[in-house]
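Quick one - first record:
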Amino acid sequence: MKSVLQYSIGLFMFGLLTTQLASCKKETSNADVQLSYQLLADKTWYLDFSITGTTKRTYVGQSTYFIDFLKNKTTVDSDGLTGFYTVEKMGSQLQIHVQAKTTSTNNVEYVYNIESIGSGNMILNYTATGATEPTKLYFSTNK
């Protein structure tokens, strides 16, 4: 009887330990999203260059495209688009989702994949409708 009791207690303790270890999961997706918001917000991001396939276009030193991501999650860009943005994590990919209106009040929606983001540099990519190759966009906060 004593060995059955010891076996049962041992099995119970093993099950309890296994359950505790399995339930200890570090949740980082919300932290990644919040950090991305902090790095994006209240800055003007200037397009330095873009790469599509093997074609590189440089915009440094030119009057070029820019986008502002504001702390209240609104956005405005040099093309006149105004709207709202969210940062989401889809699987392991951070994305910026923008819902905006053109100056003629047409709705526009687009999604950028975040490749990297820092306090002054950001690399986004997207694949245009009908395109076979993605375009990488390199932004900085320096004009």
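second record:
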Amino acid sequence: MREIIFVAWLISLYKYNKVKLQEIKRDDEEGKRNYRDEVEKLVFQNLRALILFYIIVDIAGPYIVALISK
């Protein structure tokens, strides 16, 4: 079950990143944003999301399931 959730989450993250990168490229061409800085922010945002996903699913997941099933 955890693997299915992880794959679905990765697919949604991929779609979000694809749209976000298109916005960043467009804004970079218009001079509104710096491409390199925005991509760096996006990478760290994805890293934080991955760590948070790990904490929620792998560490807190069994406790949450135990609380729900009581």
